Amino acid sequence: xxxxxxxxxxxxxxxxxxxxxxxxxxxxxxxxxxxxxxxxxxxxxxxxxxxxxxxxxxxxxxxxxxxxxxxxxxxxxxxxxxxxxxxxxxxxxxxxxxxxxxxxxxxxxxxxxxxxxxxxxxxxxxxxxxxxxxxxxxxxxxxxxxxxxxxxxxxxxxxxxxxxxxxxxxxxxxxxxxxxxxxxxxxxxxxxxxxxxxxxxxxxxxxxxxxxxxxxxxxxxxxxxxxxxxxxxxxxxxxxxxxxxxxxxxxxxxxxxxxxxxxxxxxxxxxxxxxxxxxxxxxxxxxxxxxxxxxxxxxxxxxxxxxxxxxxxxxxxxxxxxxxxxxxxxxxxxxxxxxxxxxxxxxxxxxxxxxxxxxxxxxxxxxxxxxxxxxxxxxxxxxxxxxxxxxxxxxxxxxxxxxxxxxxxxxxxxxxxxxxxxxxxxxxxxxxxxxxxxxxxxxxxxxxxxxxxxxxxxxxxxxxxxxxxxxxxxxxxxxxxxxxxxxxxxxxxxxxxxxxxxxxxxxxxxxxxxxxxxxxxxxxxxxxxxxxxxxxxxxxxxxxxxxxxxxxxxxxxxxxxxxxxxxxxxxxxxxxxx
Length: 578
Ligand code: ARG
Prior knowledge:
It is built from 22 helices and 13 strands. It is α/β, with parallel strands linked by helices. The two termini are about 35 Å apart. It is globular. The strands form 4 sheets. It has a 4-stranded antiparallel beta sheet with strand order 1-2-4-3. The structure holds arginine. The site of arginine (ARG) has 9 residues, from α13.
């Protein structure tokens, strides 16, 4: 349990002991060191309920706490402040002990969850008809960071890459593939740029009526399981997935081929989804289509927006597949928590899937299904990010540009370093910068993509954090071996501040696991680096006497470990030198 939760639990209990039942202590980290390390803000609320003077209640709570031997181990003193806040000052030697223990532990003393879940996390999920573009970036990297954090906390994480591989576009693409094959054109070559391939097929489709008719017939053949078309389709899908794998590797994302659970995987389950919905009494026919109408899905004008699960021609839809996937995730994967990293614009769709899936009994009401929505990536002008000519930006182009820009930057800072080293550093900095820029924003809002800010060595950026890490490594190179037997002593305010911050790592990680908000971890790492820089300015290491030097080196060591682990949870690498 992290410190904040520990204090919160004990103080909430103390409130109950003095008569304030079910009143949360609301413990937060203090905004300023004068107010202690933590603050209990819940006393006023509790006093209001009891119709009591809040400072009087606070006094009773403090008396209760002073008699509690568990909390007395860590707390130096309490102060009642303002209208009834309780400021909590932690003990110096307790903090020092905790730093020492954390330094000697695996995983920075972060405890595994006592209630591990089987979390199915649905992320990335591009449509395979086209190449991955910037629109897939957010789902891919935010989802990956959350999956790493959950694994770190001991949950069983099952990644599901719900790629679109079965839409009507495949009729067009396969028809075009067939044409190229006949002409003996080099198909491999053509497929190497999927985006161009798609455009070329689309032109044929739009301009040639016979081609379009053929394309429509071919979808039917494909969906009927025609061997020849299935083979062509498989070739296309493989090529497209190879493109994805290349991107995942560059992005340092954990998605593997075995995590791909494509839409087509559910083809054979779709008919039974419809019969099950019917059995559950959820189905109604509307203009020949099979739909679910529920009061929960009221639109702005109070009319119900139906969820269509089968078209009048018998075809199934995106929603049908998602329902089948939900049932599979419960039955076959044993999901107890489901996270969907999907664009905010799909929120009605997912809400319908969740409600209908539960009403149909595909999974229990108690399974938590969470749409972790995100906004759009915008260009500098505040409209969705596009190429100069207004086209969609291929993800691979964006990542290559990141590496190039970082290379120029690294070269300007280290002109004397050999080229191979500069390239290596640039790749880590460039990709880290793109990822971090996204992860550090509140995911629910749109955000403006800006090369200059994300590649800056100042501010809340990947290069700043990577540099902080490399700087600590250079201190170690100068200082030599750290004496592991040395005692940590917290004398200066900056040392104390850094120590307290270091011990709050698990608080940040817990928030990410609960709310799916990697920006909390980013902020934490940024503040930690700030605390380290202040400490480094105020507390000389090399010039201090030997005991102080060793104590400070240990603080630096834990800072480096925390930065490295924290960035790794975000899928970002560090370097020993920059
Ligand atoms: N392929 C979809 C798209 O590009 C995203 C899929 C998200 N996951 C899901 N289970 N619906 O919009």
